[in-house]
Amino acid sequence: MRAMGKVAWALLALGVAFAVGCGARHSDKEVYYLVATNVNLPYWQTAAAGFKAAAAQYKVTAKVAGPDTYDAKAELAELRSAVAAKPAGILISVADASALQAGIDEAVAAGIPVITMDSDAAASKRLYFIGTNNLEAGRLGGKRVVEKLGGKGNVVFFTLNGQPNTDERLKGFKDAFAGHPDIKIVDVFDIKGDARNAFDKAQQDLALTGPNKIDAFVCLEASSGKTVADAVKRAGGRELVAFDVDQDTLDAIKAGTIDATIAQKPFTMGYVGLKALDEVFHAPPAQLNKDYSVDAFAPYPVFVDTGTSLVDQSNVDVYIASAAAQAK
Question: DSSP assignment of 69-128, as one string?
Answer without folding.
Answer: S--HHHHHHHHHHHHHT--SEEEE--S-HHHHHHHHHHHHHTT--EEEESS--TTSS-S-
